[in-house]
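Schema walkthrough. Field components (list of strings):
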Amino acid sequence: MKHLSALALAAALAGPLAADEIWVTNERDDTISVIDIETLEVVRTIQVGERPRGITFSHDYKVVYICASDSDAVQVMDPASGEILHDLPSGEDPEQFVLHPDNRHLYIANEDDAITTVVDTETRRVIAQIDVGIEPEGMAVSPDGTIAITTSETTNMAHWIDTATQKLFANTLVDSRPRHAEFTEDGTELWVSSEIGGTVTVFDVATQTEKAKIAFEIDGMHPDRIQPVGFEFAAGENHAFVALGPSNHLAVVNMKTYEVEDYILVGRRVWHMAFNADKSLLFTTNGISGDVTVVDVAKRRGIKTIEVGRFPWGAAFRPTN
Amino acid sequence: MKRASRLLGAIALGLSAAQPLRAEVAVTLHFLKIDVPAPPTLTSLDVVPEGLGLDGAALAVADNTTTGRFLGQTYRLEQSEVDVDGDVTGAARAALAQTPYLVIDGPAEALLAIADLPEAQGAILFNASAPDAALRSGDCRANLLHTAPSDAMRTDAIAQYLVVRKWTDAVMIVGPHPADKAFAAAMERSLAKFGARLRETKTWGESGADMRRNAAEEVPLFTADFPGHDVVIVADELHDFGRFIPYNTQEPRPVVGSEGLRAEAWAPVVEQWGAAQLQSRFQDHAGRPMEPGDYAAWAAVRAVGEAVTRTGTGDSDSVYAYMTGPEFELAGFKGRPLSFRPWNGQLRQTIPLVHDRALAASAPFEGFLHPVTELDTLGLDRPESACTAFEE
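Field assembly_structure (string):
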């Protein structure tokens, strides 16, 4: 029996038929749960640094970067072996980060220090530290790599960083407690969620001005409980899926009209999410219920709940073929 | 008339608040501490921190300054201290000559004396400590906002908790001080409001017994003749005898109120909703954990900062209009936007129920419904408050 599973594991690691994976950071377990997208089960649990939150793969998927917030480090891991290769200097309390399209520069939000740190992942050196607002969190970089964004939770702004000079060139107010930021694929729009404000602001990137503001409303739910946090754009960028925190729902937003089309029930205090390869499935981390909801994107409903560790937070997709 | 013009201001601002208005704005705030000598207590275990309240205000000024940096706005904190028997109104006048923004740690009578000064008309005063119901009801003033929760908010939080847990038969031990009696009166009202029963109340006598040695003998005797109950409520706001009640009751019952499970605006064990960040910023700043008094002062200064950020002005009429208007929301690390009640100027907030080791629960609880916001199930709701000063 032991031999069999060892064989199966070896095959899974080496063979071309291994299933793609979703990696989930468990904030209060100091682990990563690896979900097999075929079986929708946790197949590996990997020990990492303290209070892991942000997680992202290099663009070639050779390494995975993990914000170990309370270890004050960004850990670099070999995703095949689960071994930590080394730590990157990250500044204090790294919470979230984004990898530049050059696959080399990591922009890290240092939540306790009101700083964004830029790290060269090759030389492993800090190349810039940029003063931003209090409790920086959401991080994004434009598809052409010219602009990086940090949102600050207590200052309530999106800070626009020119990646050529590593200096701020604009600071735009959003509603209370911005959490997450994303550029659209064509680079013309920046979306920012505001957890306490209960809105998502859409900016016109060329002018850094507000283009639309999306509000949410769920029957029988007080607006205070509807708290947008993480979000992702579906295939074709016609729809955005927005996690609404303690309302335990995702919103499906039409990206042309900015109207909310649907609400999908998921687990408790939904945080972040990741799609599978063809974006037909969406995996949401549910902080309080300690699980991941698998959403059928076409049907717009949850199809399975997968138990992971305590306080699952970040999610990232890993192709294996 | 004054109020009417302020209301118009709010409407005009609602149209233009979407974008930051870039203009040089310099805001001064003043933290005024009115010193009240603390009566002696049975132990010296509780030390009131030197900078209680002031440290919270200072941290919020630093928070505001970081945000202001991007908008051309600067903030400065001044402070003064006056004895409650000293020239309180003189100290307030001196502060008001410098700024219309006063954060005050002081008792109700002093707050009212300051609020009624001619110099304070048009100022914004924040009550960062007094829990009195009257200040939110018949004795309210339109220029006095409350960031400290009232006794009623805290006791409503406890009563909701007792009802949720079905611990609805309570007995109460009340201390001899006016603050204890006020808390007990609020508790009684809350129990009736949410349908719990107060089966008996006993007053803790001013006996000379040394509780540090005798608690194990005295408290079981003292609690032995209570009628059947689920829970023991302690009203001991000065933290005198209450600490000796848990584990010494005749019946094995939990203790809530001023001791045991407490309802507080803030506590070091609060860490959800990003609170851990505020806690660590405060710890770095003050070198000690953040207490409720610090939180109330922090919230007052942040409220001004938030209003200045959104309106782009430091003008106190505009700030007042925005802050007390429907657009205002403060991210106070309590999981919901905080705002001021338009009928009595009280900051709406969730109330954590804590013990020394953890947050047990957070009020309001699910199932306590309210037509406007569940937060208004805590404290004096509009029909319960006799305040009219905020009406035009």
